[in-house]
Amino acid sequence: LLVERDGTVQHQNICSSAFYTHTNTSIGFVINPFTISMKTGLVGTFRSMKSDLTGVPDSIGGMVNNLSMHYLNIYVSPEVEINTTAFNLKLKLPVSYMPYWYYDKLLGNTNNNNKLFVSPSLSMNYYITSKFSASASGDICQTGVNEQLFYSGLLLGDYHNLYQGYIDYRNGHSASASLNLAYRDPLKAFFSRLEVGYQWNYSPLSSSRRFMGDYILNSYLNHDNRSHNWSINGHISKGVDWLGTILTLNSNYSKTT
Questions:
Q1: Distance (Å, rounded) from C-alpha 217 to C-alpha 15?
Q2: How far is Cα 150 from Cα 47, in angstroms, rounded to an integer?
Q3: For residue range 204-256, what is the model confidence (pLDDT) as tens digits?
């Protein structure tokens, strides 16, 4: 990348490589009313990066990167499903073990870590009558480490944006739950639906933008970031024969904190 501005020149060379592999297998069988399955596999990512930046004040940060970041994802994902005429339930329990290897070749620093992720989910559908049904679902998810942030030197994005990585093995979490109720009477052309949902998100990092002279430095701060969201959605529709049309009423409510 070459940028010319105000009689100065900023020049950056980046040399990066990445190798990705994914091997998996699965098995399943049925013992009525149960369906049991499992998927297991291995994911490997191996990447390295070298970069050199000139023409930017070194008071902002380091100008050179020379690093490698490798990790494996050894996962097992069992699943159990129960199916009957009026009832369906599905439980998933994926488990991942992920070792990470980070090496800064400039500083000779090694920063390795091991993470265990468990992200269960449960969903259910119940047909109470031929017209009335209910469904519910919930899940807890652990987000993986963002290895793309593992670098210490600066990267030049364009003529005024600089990017600085953040080496941190902490990971985020999220959880959600929902309940849906539906009533349908096709003979009377009447349909209604109510949906209630909740979602929670957590991240250990917050994005940061700072003005550094002629540049904007984009990075991250060690600051917890949490959010909660409630939502309620309703829908009613009724066919009116003498009008030859369908009357529809929708309502929505959402609150985020």
A1: 22
A2: 11
A3: 999 999 998 888 999 999 988 999 999 999 999 998 888 888 899 999 999 99
